Amino acid sequence: MLNGLSKNKAVIGIQNPVQMDDTNEPEPDISLLIYRTDFYASAHPVPVDVLAIIEVSDASIRFDEEVKLPLYASHGILEYWMIGLESNRIEVYTNPKEGTYTSIQRYLPGEEIPLMAQTLSVNEVLISD
Predict the structure, then answer these.
(1) Angle, vertex CA 33, rays to CA 30 and CA 37, nearest 5
(2) For 69-87, how does the pLDDT look when each residue is reduced to its tens digit (9 = 90+)?
(3) In-domain check, residue 5
(4) How many domains does the chain have?
């Protein structure tokens, strides 16, 4: 899915912690982080390091919507994706303001999603080999 990201452009974290504050350190399914040469070995990323967070939601959909969504928005995470396996769609939340996202885009199979100067096919994201 993210193979097209060029070297030295971003660090991709897979279920690695992101330190939101002293009491919240979620482990998103995928985090796209500002590139660092140490790949965050010296410290967990914090919200200003995050380009996007992607959660794959099936049984966790309620937790992702009710807990993680407002947590990420309140800490200024610029882009939050929920990949809905049961709904067969991807929701992209952007423009965090005052603890909520002011923009929501929904993408269905056959559509494309912009991400870091490239596009991803919804079909490619939702369907695995």
Answers:
(1) 125
(2) 999 999 999 999 999 988 8
(3) no
(4) 1
